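Subgroup meeting minutes
Present: P.N., E.W., G.H.
Scribe: E.W.

1. P.N. recapped why we're keeping a running log of single-chain structure predictions: easier to compare across weeks, and new members can see raw inputs and outputs side by side.
2. G.H. added today's entry (104 aa).
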Amino acid sequence: MHEVLQDLATEVRSKNAGPFWVTLEVFLRDEAAYAVAADPGFLDGEVVARLYGVAAAGVRIFRVPSLNVVKISFPRPVAQGSLRDRDIHAGQHHVPLALLPLPA
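Output recorded in log:
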């Protein structure tokens, strides 16, 4: 039984998209998993904003059905390499998204 988003994915990762943006990518196992993850009723800007403490208006979600991929970008809370930056490569930002509970 699938309980969190990572259970539907082959990979969930995050990376820098320049010094001011983070990109998250969810590579889904198949079309059925993609249908769940790409559903705007499940994953939208409000959900991402809540998970990462960012403004929903700044969240960009790209759904790529031909690849079974959902890509999310949002402004970094602090600039890359700044004094308060705790993850300079944004390599750990994917964890809250990967652990997002699936709909019942």
